[in-house]
Predict the 3D structure of the following.
Amino acid sequence: MIHLRGAGTDVVLDVSGGVPVIVHWGAPLGEVLLESVASALQRPVSNGMLDVVAPVSIVPEHGSGFQGRPGLLGHRRGGSAWSPRFQPAGTTELDSGPAGGGRGVVVSAIDVVAGLRLDTTVKLGHVLTVACALTNTGSGTGAGTGAGIYLLEQLTVTLPLPAHAADLLTFTGRWTREFHPDRRPWPDGAVLIENRRGRTSHEHVSLAFAGESGFGEWRGEVWGAHLAWSGNHVLMAECLADGRRYLQLGELLHPGEIALRPGDTYRTPDVIATHSIEGLTPATWGFHRSLRARPGHRAAPRPVVLNTWEAVYFDHDAGRLKELATIAASLGVERYVLDDGWFGSRRDDRRGLGDWTVSPDVYPHGLAPLIEHVTSLGMEFGIWVEPEMVSTDSDLFRAHPEWALATDGYEPVEGRHQLVLDLGRADAFAHVLDRLDALLSDHEIAFVKWDMNRDHVQGSGASGAAGTHAQTVALYALLDELHRRHPAVEIERCASGGGRIDHAILERTSRVWTSDCNDALERQTIQRGVSMLIPPELMGAHIGPPRAHTTGRTHSLAFRAATAMFGHLGVECDVVSLSVDDRADLRRVIELHKRFRHLLHSGDVVRFDPVPNGAPAEWPATHAAGVYATDRSEALVSVAQLRTAMSLSPAPLRLPGLTADRLYDVHHLALPRAGRVPAREQPAWIANGISLTGRQLAVHGLQLPVMNPESAVLVHVCAHASSATDGGAAV
């Protein structure tokens, strides 16, 4: 028995069998007799069942009597070795590693009959991290070219959960509507989520939470798990007939995609898991803190961005782009990003991908004049690329049609008039690396927006086998090599917006583009969902034009600003066409964000349960969320009115989690163009501020003003002792 202790969470492993079993994953146990933990939970044999109760191990074995889905599926040619049963082969303790890395062990197991070795790594720090490695130890002797090959169908990590984890929260969505919650009582049988799109997916998110019945943001015991992988995946939540529950996560492999020759090893992606006894909000802090503990995590303030896409689309004109930069700098923008349309024949989305050279038609003098103008204004310069793709109408495809990730003999299925470029091929990989390296070497570029705009369909590598796994591994290698050559360049991950949001891609990039939808109303739900996996500074959030181009809705600047405030702020609209007054208001918004970004980009994200309003739970009338300083000295909270509620007046805003006996000054932050609320509809604290203890804020809270749909209120909370110097007065 091995006892791992984390920050507020303990894990007890039974390593007496071949594959380790998580006996306890939950609240700290203190000093206990470890053997008593397993003994106390030993299950009786039920009538009509096998004479053993097979454990829900990290890789459950059908060969040991497990009746759920096995963690390992595969076989050798001819069908043998399909049901292995592993025996212990040793345990190795791991060093603590970097800050937040915690303790860990590697548990090894072998099956001499099947010719397989399984090494399971378990670490506990800010989060629980579990991964497995399967090695083909067969001899490879025998007749035929396939002798000794083990065809792996699936290797997943399984996390057992207690019976009182009775509610299940997963996420669904689509393009421009990502990360929408789907909550239900955990049913008998299995809930299966599979993704075959070749990227992390808008629709099938590799994240799930389970918790006590009725758990909330600040109440109930909660467990969460995420697969850190940027390709195909499977997530299953199952309740067995005997009442045991487990989550199972891993890479989804196409038939024949992984064929292990003798000596070959397949390693699963990391499963990253978190736990809290105090609700969903504290549980998500584990995910955030593990990302912030990355060696390459940027501690400096995240620069305010202007992206040119919704200002000019493909209509690039050097004079207008310079004017955009001049106006952006006057507004306080710190990073200017030139989006799609700067290269090759790329005047629309039908051609040019793969030809990563500056277009002489649009930029006869190259990009240098624009870059020099941008940097002379004190801004960084960034650029858009989509290196994993190739247009069929491009010089690259005409020269190398064999580099497409497609299947010989079939007409490939296009998406956005483009195909996937097979980075698993050494020659294609080298070409893309060379072109990107030249782009970054020849220009003063500080930031790359890396897009990926289509799914994998019948994508075969050069060997004819499915190529998504190799493509994902090659993508990581490409990003790693570019970072080695250009360590100062930051990369944003975009995949039609939120199609690739996972911890593995964020090991290699500095932020994600949360969604292609800049509609503030849609973004309220999208960003709330994404905040359960990543912290605000990694979440691209832009103020778009008044009329959102993906939905056609029109919103005030105040609502757009209050929504984008709680992320890595950017502007994505034609600032040249704004009136003088509109520019002044936008400048004030950017100044306000800069005032609070030290808090927003380092504090603990907090969310608050919506007050019942007569509508279904999945359609709340309000969203309340914000950020608390880690020392609880300050907080910034937004309450967004999404739609009309049944109640004529809103319920008070309660703020749990601050220091109970500390006195706080509370002020309303007025946003530009928010509109005046009649005095009789305003609580007194809106105009004059108020001082309350943390206990008061948690117990009875603050009465909110009457709010119109698609509007927001910002509340600043600051410890009383420092409020005089902190600028706590209303803005």
Q: What stands out?
A: The chain has a mean pLDDT of 93. Residues 580-600 form the longest helix (21 residues).
